Amino acid sequence: MSIIVEIEKKFFSKNNMTTKVKRSVTSLLPVAQNRKGCCIRCGACCKLPNVCPFLVTNKKGESYCSVYRLRPPTCHKYPRTKSEFLTADTCGYSFE
Predict the structure, then answer these.
(1) Where are the domains of the chain?
(2) 42 near 63, Cβ under 8 Å?
(3) How many Å apart are CA 96 and CA 82, to the nearest integer?
C-alpha cells in the first residue's frame, strides 16, 4: 500500500474536521459522473462533523436547509465522489 493511500485512510476516511476541510476545498471540483440519485432530505450530510446551524427538521422528520439558496458548494455537491461518501446508509445518492 502506498504512503498516499495510508495518509488518506488515516486523515480522510473519518468524520472529522480534516475531512470537512477536504470536502470544502474539493467542493470546487465537479461532481463525479457516476453519482446517481437525489437528496432524500435525511439531513445526515448536514451533521458532518457537527450539526449545521442552518439545518431544520420539520414535523415529518424531513431535514432542510434554512439558507438553501445561499448554501455553500460543499453542501450543494455532497457527496461529490464515492471516497467522500460518508452517509451511504441513509443518503439518497449512490455511486456506480
Answers:
(1) 3-95
(2) yes
(3) 9
